[in-house]
Amino acid sequence: MPYPVERMRRLRRTPGLRRMVRETRLTLDNLIEGHFVCPGEGVRREVAAMPGCAQMSIDVLVEECKRSFDLGIPAIILFGLPARKDATGSEGTSPGGIVPRAIAAVKEAVPDLVVWADVCLCEYTDHGHCGVLRGEEVDNDATLPLLARAAVAYARAGADGVAPSDMMDGRVAAIRTALDAAGCAQTPILAYAAKFASGFYGPFRDAAESTPQFGDRRGYQMDPPNAREALREMELDLAEGADILMVKPALAYLDIIRQARDRFDVPIAAYNVSGEYSMIRAAARNGWIDEDRIILEVLTSIRRAGADLILTYFARDAARLLL
What we know:
Elements: H1 15-20, E1 31-37, E2 44-46, E3 54-56, H2 58-70, E4 75-80, H3 90-93, H4 98-109, E5 114-119, E6 133-134, E7 137-138, H5 140-157, E8 161-164, H6 171-181, E9 190-195, H7 202-208, H8 228-240, E10 244-248, H9 254-263, E11 268-272, H10 274-285, H11 291-305, E12 309-312, H12 315-322
Parallel strand pairs: 1-3, 1-4, 1-12, 4-5, 5-8, 9-10, 10-11, 11-12
Antiparallel strand pairs: 2-3, 6-7
Helix pairs in contact: 2-4, 4-5, 5-6, 6-8, 9-11
């Protein structure tokens, strides 16, 4: 019946009533916290473009991971900064590289913390692209064995899962085959399946020191206007062996998250990326928004769109606000 019999405000009247009929639940179990690990000891370099985030040496990272786990954050993902870079990103594929060493240290100190390892070459190459080059173009097929080698190194170091973010065609199949052959058949793959060539990545590139030295990544990351293509990418990654599908970025692509949720019966992840994070931080520092309220509103919107997992730099803020 319409008004005055039907009054939608009845169930909004008190905090208790609102809580009882809330449709979308955001919990810490939905979150993955991003961290940047770098060489050295006792290193903590704040990232100017991402207030509250830092490049950390392994010893500092371990202590931060202990704090995160104590706050109830169940998972992290690691991005590495190498001691040196070269044309093929060799430190990214080395068992002795910064990320495998960090994984081993974190798992020893906090064994129940779920550790994901980002698989890409952009942080490790001297040209800043996500694969090896042929001229000024990324050579897709020559890059696949390197990504597979990196994934195996991370899995053998103790990573609970690997997350390829490079957007090479066939990378999930190459990684799945290599993991299985290396005795790591139980290692899941969280595929950055629909990763768009977005303007929201700038602060991350400062943090990971991964800005391309020439050109851009539009030749391998997705064109932002394309939704049907995103679903094709997800179908292919799923067929190749992906266990979880990710949409990146999140806020400008909530429609893609919803379409993925409606179409695929696997966990869907979304990356609340650096630009989304930094805009909120900057606006809050200028007194333009209520930061705590916006953090929960944004993360809840990503959940409402259909994401089961959210990779976010707001994980600690959410832990404080959700307790």
